[in-house]
Amino acid sequence: MKSEMNSIPVFVAAAESVSFSQAAEKLHVSRSAVAKTVSRLEERLGVTLFNRTTRSQSLTDEGSLYYEFCRRALNEIKLAEDILEGGKLQASGKLRVSVPVLLGHFCISPLLSALAKEHHGLELEISFSDRQVDLPEEGFDLAVRIGALADSSSLVARKLASHTMVFCASPDYILEAGEPASPAELKQHAAVAYIHSGRILKWRVKNENNEITEFIPPARLKMDDMQAVKDIAVAGGGIAWLPYWLVREQLISGSLTEILKDQSSGSWPVYAVWPRTPHLSLKVRLAVDKLISELPAMMATVKAQI
Fold it and tell me: Which stretches make up the HTH lysR-type domain (predicted)?
């Protein structure tokens, strides 16, 4: 078994060299030692790994397949040795993450940036887009998504937190227009609406019978950017229906006031998704663990924090 394991680094060196002689120089052994090791490996596997001529050598199809697995195995072994030598789990390499624009800006980016600070070998690349990316096709290691997920056998998902909504308005607006006491009174107030994909996002409320109803807010001001909706609401433009995580600082400072606390009925799951692989990489596992442990508190309702 020991000799079989020892043959793998020799085979990889030969596969990555133009000749057995060059591989021998890298390994500080004789050319005949490399050739004999490869021959014994081919005999054990029952396949030809190299096409050999007097002037060149190249991998066969079987050799290319075997090389990919051997290279991966040696990389994993090297990573494990580095982790043990460092005395703690240290992620390394590039981590490409796709996140929704505002949620990514306010919540995801700070957490993953802190993770990169903890792991000096980690290279973090975050793409901010509300478009649902194709992770394998576009080379992403991880994505954060809001709402129900489509069935996919090629992706793995973990729930991170809940995306909840709040009705809010500025104190000046409430002083001038009054505070609605029921969902029905919302239609009598100025609204600042959010437009998504060309359509106004319907507001969801619970009525007196605790039933959920939806309606299009009577908005004269409409924005396709939630940050802009928040800014207009802070400036006294009307009532807005926005995520807690987006307005929590304004609710704490008092520049926005929550209204109809028990009538808002917007809540959607937030997931981390990543391509299904036989072994989850350390960098992805640590990123998901970071989000699971710290994201819920960042997205929680203000009333749960005071």
Answer: 1-60
pLDDT on residue 107: 93
Contact 158, 285 (CB under 8 A): no
3-state secondary structure the chain: CHHHHHHHHHHHHHHCCCCHHHHHHHHCCCHHHHHHHHHHHHHHHCCCCEEECCCCEEECHHHHHHHHHHHHHHHHHHHHHHHHHHCCCCCEEEEEEEECHHHHHHHHHHHHHHHHHHCCEEEEEEEECCCCCCHHHHCCCEEEEECCCCCCCCEEEEEEEEEEEEEEECHHHHHHHCCCCCHHHHHHCCEEEEEECCEECCEEEECCCCCEEEECCCEEEEECCHHHHHHHHHCCCCEEEEEHHHHHHHHHHCCCEEECCCCECCEEEEEEEEECCCCCCHHHHHHHHHHHHHHHHHHCCHHHCC
Q: What is the pLDDT of residue 104?
A: 93
Structure tokens at 135: 């992770």
List pLDDT tens digits, range 142-180: 999 998 887 777 889 999 998 889 999 999 999 999 999
- Of all residues in the chain, the percent with pLDDT exceeding 90 is 52
| CA–CA separation, 18 and 147 (whole Å) | 52
In this prediction the pTM is: 0.64
Could you give the CA distance from residue 73 to residue 80 in angstroms, rounded to a whole number?
A: 11
Selected residue with higher pLDDT from 8 and 301 = 8
**Chain centre distance of CA 36:** 47
Closest CA to 74 of 4, 144, 12: 12
Average model confidence (pLDDT) across the chain: 87
Q: Which residues pair with 52 in a beta bridge?
A: 57
